[in-house]
From TrEMBL, chains A, B:
InterPro entries: Arg_biosynth_ArgJ, ArgJ-like_dom_sf, ArgJ_beta_C
UniProt-listed Enzyme Commission number(s): 2.3.1.35, 2.3.1.1
UniProt keywords, alphabetically: Acyltransferase, Amino-acid biosynthesis, Arginine biosynthesis, Autocatalytic cleavage, Cytoplasm, Multifunctional enzyme, Transferase
NCBIfam families, A to Z: ArgJ (TIGR00120), PRK05388.1 (NF003802)
Gene: argJ
Listed SUPFAM superfamilies: DmpA/ArgJ-like
Annotated substrate binding sites: T147, K169, T180, E259, N386, T391
Pathway membership: Amino-acid biosynthesis; L-arginine biosynthesis; N(2)-acetyl-L-ornithine from L-glutamate: step 1/4; Amino-acid biosynthesis; L-arginine biosynthesis; L-ornithine and N-acetyl-L-glutamate from L-glutamate and N(2)-acetyl-L-ornithine (cyclic): step 1/1
A GO term from the CC aspect: cytoplasm
The protein, known as: Arginine biosynthesis bifunctional protein ArgJ
Record has Acyltransferase as a keyword: yes
Compartments where found: Cytoplasm
Amino acid sequence: MEHIDIVPGFSWFGKNIGIKDKTLDFGGILADVPCQAAAVFTKNTIPGAPVQVGREHIKDGLLQAVIVNSKNANVATGTGGLEDARRMCRLVAESCGIAPELVLPSSTGVIGRRLPMEVIVKGAASLQDDFGKTERHLLNFADAIMTTDTRRKIMSVKVGNATLVGVAKGAGMIEPNMATMLSYLMTDAAIPSAVLQPMLQRAVNKSFNRISVDTDTSTSDTVVLLANGLAGAVDLEAFEAALQEMTVYLAKEIARDGEGATKLIELKVSGAKTAEQALLTAKSVVNSPLVKTAIYGADPNWGRFVMAIGKVFAYQVDVAELVIYFGQGAERLKLDAAMDMNEVPLDDISELLKRSEVFLEIVLGSGPYSETVWGCDLTEGYVHENAHYTT
Amino acid sequence: MEHIDIVPGFSWFGKNIGIKDKTLDFGGILADVPCQAAAVFTKNTIPGAPVQVGREHIKDGLLQAVIVNSKNANVATGTGGLEDARRMCRLVAESCGIAPELVLPSSTGVIGRRLPMEVIVKGAASLQDDFGKTERHLLNFADAIMTTDTRRKIMSVKVGNATLVGVAKGAGMIEPNMATMLSYLMTDAAIPSAVLQPMLQRAVNKSFNRISVDTDTSTSDTVVLLANGLAGAVDLEAFEAALQEMTVYLAKEIARDGEGATKLIELKVSGAKTAEQALLTAKSVVNSPLVKTAIYGADPNWGRFVMAIGKVFAYQVDVAELVIYFGQGAERLKLDAAMDMNEVPLDDISELLKRSEVFLEIVLGSGPYSETVWGCDLTEGYVHENAHYTT
């Protein structure tokens, strides 16, 4: 994005405090007033300490600040780790004169190590001075939450008089250090938490829950939406549409930036008997290592798609009805079981697979349901990065 | 294996007929008499044509021959493909003077292309002369069924007066419920089909269904057991024990030879509340790309194990009870959440992870259930092989 609108009534910071190296590793969001808030967290049954504290603090639907560190996830760290996450909230609260329960903590990075609290306490000594309301402050925050990301993920959009800004990190549904997908959304629209929460859940279900890099589910995934109300009421349908557009954009940015990935895959499965069949099939295909390596190699491998569709054991598929489209619009090319593979324009399909965005549609039959998911190819780069990441 | 015992009353062949290149691509098994037989096939809902024909032919519990080609899987090939599979059976039947319903066909290789039947008909012209009873004939058969395998997989064992010989192939698309995993087991023990079938199912459940290379389930997985009865009755418990030992051996050989793999992983999950929890957790860990790449890199990454255990959403795990052992016997080294990661002998654990066989045990708690699975590491070689495999 060239230009990012800031949201009135919010401040940000992002800086280096030396948790591991010299890159930005500590960031925060502070609203001028308590915000109506909504949040969605990881389904991993061993959630990180910050997720556990975040769940407590969001209960009343109110938040005023977010504090994030990268390089260490504070996961599987026991009661000491829980205390560290609470202490991070208190540091912000004391510095900024708000209640600790209004702070949501996040940590992302290596799992199983205690946070270096002496470094964090020192880094948080002058927080009230670190926060600022400029675009530069916002961009620093977006940079400070990155781990193996190769680029910043941020978007802003106007909804009536209100502004919605979203920031995300994640090089996949999971990263080498299992670090996590995090996203922070801020608006000055006035929307109560009770409305925001189901709206955010719907948006997440159609965006962040539709991407996959490697099937590994982080212990720390967190999406938070803060609404400070300064711009007054907005059209809720327009806001939800903007929210969905933004979360899909950020989700695609994460899939595109998947570990070692060279291309983004957008896969629609249609003609399904149920929504579940559409989603299970889409996930099975976009997660299949053999499909992902075929797309990396620009190989229009009909057989691997058939295999990945057929391993959804709960639904029977008639291969005679199966159609796979490669590309989109006028360029779309078709493969089905009735075609003679020796007469299919495999070279043209291969050309479509060489692009940085690969569009696929699988038609299962004549059912009414469809689902769209996003993923990335599987490359030597993914293996290299993850085999040699140091604990 | 240095020496392989042959089974009396069986003949084999393996040869090149030029389906794709000059390597062995056509093989068969022929018994002197109709055999009591049992078979287990893929759960993929789009099974190959040979699997569909095989299911019909095994129904009466009798088989006398097996015919296999590699280089082409005859999957997703419509009614023409079904007819090709039946024709392969007729070619053997006519050549060898038996009923076509006594022949089980298998094909493995590329999916979605019709078999080159003119090549196969020509190759099958003198089948009665190709079959022979020597170890060399058996080894040629074991070689002819390989695709991306780097080595032959074969074992023989004595049970009383009887001999049991097993042959297998498989190196990718391996999550057998499935490049396909094929295994042919032959014995001269006299055991009725009604006893063999549940015995084979139990053995497969503890062996081939406990391995995974890449979570992709082939459309062609087949395990067949033929008993010609020449050696008379045997102790059934001893036979089942031998069968289990053999299927576990062959399953491990497949996992060890996983595409691009540099090491075999044996993972036991114990202390589970249910057998399902033990198996789901073991599969989740052994299939996790981040665990597999960590083991490739000999990285004792506690965090990745915790993540993979926690993504089994159906069961709650208390991380305080979790223990991971690396290695086996006296060398075993332990990691748990209570340990200070800075004092753990990570270098010693890393040394254990550098071996060609990696032993792991995860203790989930104090439950009574355990399961063992086998897998392999994920390497640049897997990606390279599958990205550049030509359709």
